[in-house]
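Hello again, I could really use a second opinion on something today. I've dropped the whole record in just underneath, so have a look.
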Amino acid sequence: MAQTVPEMLAEIHAASFETPRPWSATEFAGLLSMTGVFLVTGDGPSFALGRFVPHEAELLTLAVAPEARGQGLGRKILKAYEKEADRQIALKSFLEVAADNEAAISLYLSEGYSESGRRKQYYTAPDKTKVDALVMEKRIKHT
């Protein structure tokens, strides 16, 4: 039996994250059924899930399977997310990222995001320690 889209997303997410905790197929199915939520997929095992409300887009999650990292898929899928945000006429994009996720933070900074806030002890790591979330934003340039 073939996997559903939510199951495939949950599988990639589980391979990609410990903090924040991986999302389940049920959670992905619920998000995908919500108004304004959009999914962009990459060439390899990667995806970005975003949400649009008038004039703002939020990157809910971006995941690249571990075996596909180092090939630029994260950057490509981030650009695909931003292109869709632009298409939806978002003026800004927002995201939250674990403060200890150096690779993701480096990607976001290199693509023009800047830190606009911090949520203290927002995530719980597998060892039960608390990790801050950085809130980042970027102005979307309309083409």
